[in-house]
C-alpha cells in the first residue's frame, strides 16, 4: 500500500507539471499579441497578480518544512510571469505601458509590505507562518479570480475572444491537484486557496461552455479542425516540394 508521504510526493510532482502548464497557458494569447503587434483589450492584471503570488509562495515554502515542490514551481512561475509582463510592455500603447508600470510597482510594494515585516520584526515561527499563509491565500485566490474579470466582457459582447479557455481549464486542474496535495498532509493554507481556486475555475469553464454553445463564436474556430487543416497544408506543401526538387509533375490535387 502506498503511504501518504509517497502519494504526496507523486501529487507534488504532478502539481508542478500542471502548474507549469498553467504558467505557460497564456502563450497562445501572447502569440496573438505578437501577430497583431498590439495587446488590444488583453489585461495585464493576471500576470502582475501571479508575480506577487509566486513571490509570496516562495517565501512560504522557505519557512515551512518539506515544501520543495512549492518553492520550485513558484520560482519557475515567477520567471515566466516576469517575461510575460516585459513582453506585454513592449507591445502595449503608451497609456497601457503607464498602467502596467503602475500595477507592477503596486505589486512590488505589496510583496515588500508582506515580506519585510515578517523578516525583520521579531515573532514566533508559528505567527510568521500564519501571517505569510494568510497573505498567500488572499493573493492566490486573486490569481485564480483574475480570469473572471473577462466574464463581464463576455456577458456584454457575447464573445469569448478575450477569455482564454486554456487558462481556465489548466487553472481548474491546478486547483484539483494542489487541493489533493494539501489533503494528503493537511495544509490549511494550500487547502483554502486551491479549494476556492477549484470553484472559480469551475465557474470560468462553465461560463465558457455556456457562451460557446449558446452563441456563435466565429473568432474561436474549432481547434481540432484548424489543426487538421494546418497539418494537411504542411503535408501538401511537402509533396509539392518533393516533386519539384525531384523533377516530378505536380498535380492539381497536390496543392488543393
Automatic annotation (TrEMBL):
<comment type="similarity">
    <text>Belongs to the SWEET sugar transporter family.</text>
</comment>
<feature type="transmembrane region" description="Helical">
    <location>
        <begin position="102"/>
        <end position="121"/>
    </location>
</feature>
<dbReference type="InterPro" id="IPR047664">
    <property type="entry name" value="SWEET"/>
</dbReference>
<keyword id="KW-0677">Repeat</keyword>
<protein>
    <recommendedName>
        <fullName>Bidirectional sugar transporter SWEET</fullName>
    </recommendedName>
</protein>
<keyword id="KW-0812">Transmembrane</keyword>
<dbReference type="GO" id="GO:0051119">
    <property type="term" value="F:sugar transmembrane transporter activity"/>
</dbReference>
<keyword id="KW-0472">Membrane</keyword>
<keyword id="KW-0762">Sugar transport</keyword>
<dbReference type="Pfam" id="PF03083">
    <property type="entry name" value="MtN3_slv"/>
</dbReference>
<feature type="transmembrane region" description="Helical">
    <location>
        <begin position="127"/>
        <end position="145"/>
    </location>
</feature>
<feature type="transmembrane region" description="Helical">
    <location>
        <begin position="12"/>
        <end position="34"/>
    </location>
</feature>
<dbReference type="GO" id="GO:0005886">
    <property type="term" value="C:plasma membrane"/>
</dbReference>
<comment type="function">
    <text>Mediates both low-affinity uptake and efflux of sugar across the plasma membrane.</text>
</comment>
<feature type="transmembrane region" description="Helical">
    <location>
        <begin position="68"/>
        <end position="90"/>
    </location>
</feature>
<keyword id="KW-0813">Transport</keyword>
<keyword id="KW-1133">Transmembrane helix</keyword>
<keyword id="KW-1003">Cell membrane</keyword>
<comment type="function">
    <text>Mediates both low-affinity uptake and efflux of sugar across the membrane.</text>
</comment>
<dbReference type="InterPro" id="IPR004316">
    <property type="entry name" value="SWEET_rpt"/>
</dbReference>
<feature type="transmembrane region" description="Helical">
    <location>
        <begin position="190"/>
        <end position="213"/>
    </location>
</feature>
<feature type="transmembrane region" description="Helical">
    <location>
        <begin position="165"/>
        <end position="184"/>
    </location>
</feature>
<feature type="transmembrane region" description="Helical">
    <location>
        <begin position="46"/>
        <end position="62"/>
    </location>
</feature>
Amino acid at each position: 500500500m502506498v503511504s501518504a508521504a509517497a502519494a504526496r510526493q507523486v501529487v507534488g510532482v504532478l502539481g508542478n507539471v500542471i502548474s507549469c502548464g498553467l504558467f505557460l497557458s497564456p502563450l497562445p494569447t501572447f502569440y496573438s499579441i505578437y501577430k497583431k503587434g498590439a495587446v488590444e483589450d488583453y489585461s495585464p492584471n493576471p500576470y502582475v497578480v501571479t508575480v506577487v503570488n509566486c513571490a509570496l509562495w516562495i517565501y512560504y515554502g522557505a519557512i515551512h518544512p518539506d515544501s520543495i515542490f512549492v518553492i520550485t514551481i513558484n520560482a519557475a512561475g515567477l520567471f515566466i510571469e516576469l517575461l510575460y509582463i516585459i513582453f506585454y510592455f513592449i507591445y502595449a500603447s503608451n497609456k497601457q505601458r503607464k498602467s502596467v508600470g503602475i500595477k507592477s510597482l503596486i505589486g512590488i510594494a505589496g510583496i515588500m509590505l508582506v515580506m519585510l515585516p515578517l523578516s525583520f520584526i521579531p515573532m514566533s515561527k508559528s505567527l510568521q507562518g500564519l501571517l505569510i499563509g494568510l497573505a498567500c491565500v488572499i493573493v492566490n485566490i486573486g490569481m485564480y479570480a483574475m480570469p473572471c474579470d473577462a466574464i463581464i466582457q463576455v456577458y456584454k459582447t457575447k464573445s469569448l475572444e478575450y477569455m482564454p479557455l486554456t487558462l481556465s481549464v489548466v487553472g481548474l486542474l491546478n486547483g484539483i491537484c494542489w487541493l489533493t496535495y494539501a489533503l494528503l498532509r493537511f495544509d490549511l493554507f494550500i487547502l483554502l486557496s486551491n479549494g476556492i481556486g477549484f470553484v472559480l475555475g469551475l465557474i470560468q469553464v462553465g461560463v465558457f461552455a455556456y457562451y460557446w454553445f449558446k452563441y456563435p463564436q466565429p473568432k474561436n474556430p474549432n481547434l481540432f479542425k484548424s489543426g487538421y487543416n494546418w497539418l494537411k497544408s504542411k503535408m501538401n506543401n511537402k509533396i509539392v516540394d518533393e516533386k519539384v526538387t525531384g523533377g516530378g509533375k505536380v498535380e492539381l490535387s497536390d496543392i488543393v
